[in-house]
Amino acid sequence: MSLTGGANDLVTVISSRQDVQLSSAVAGGQVASVTLRPLSESFPFNSDRRWNVQVPSDLPTALSLSLGAGNFSLDLGKVQLTRATISTGASDLKITAPRPRGDVTIRLSGRASSITLEIPTAVEYRVSVDGALNSITGPMQSAAYAAAVDRVSISVSAGATSIDIRQQK
């Protein structure tokens, strides 16, 4: 699954298997949440299932993702992210951090995973990690994080996970 900004609609999904169930909830005359689910979650899982998801770049967006096992790419660089909670199973997860407005919190949880955090140029950030048997490479905090108003705070709760933090140049 990949997720990016740039949608013209509330959410756009292209699936390799036409297996997406899309639902939304409305509160106070506004869309409060959008839920995406596979039509079938039967075992064995289909390794050829691919979803390309786009959300708008011009609307504040909070994400709650329960991803399971697989390969995932979340390019949040063009998403007006307000907060995110992301859980994975045994997976390869690549996240490109957003360009924040205010203090944006991202909470990640996973086990036996490989997580790559791409930090765009001029984005102030801090990564905190708890759990056991984790391998961490890259700078855990930018130099100006403490004084920044616009910043990304990433907390990772993981076990037996490789975490690679990369600052884009």
Shape: globular
- DSSP E strands, number: 15
Q: How would you classify the helix and strand content by structural class? A: mainly beta
Q: What share of the residues lie within helices?
A: under 10%
Radius of gyration: 16 Å
What's the number of helices?
Answer: 0
Elements, N to C (H/E): EEEEEEEEEEEEEEE
Please tag this protein with its features.
56% strand; 169 residues; single chain; mainly beta
Kindly describe this structure.
The chain has 169 residues and is mainly β. The chain has two domains: 1-39 and 49-56, no CATH class; 60-169, no CATH class. It is 0% helix and 56% strand. The strands form three sheets. The protein has an eight-stranded mixed beta sheet, with no helix packed on it. Strands 6-8-10-14-12 form a five-stranded parallel beta sheet, with no helix packed on it. The chain has a two-stranded antiparallel sheet with strand order 3-4. A hairpin with a 2-residue loop joins strand 3 and strand 4. The model has no long low-confidence stretch (mean pLDDT 91).
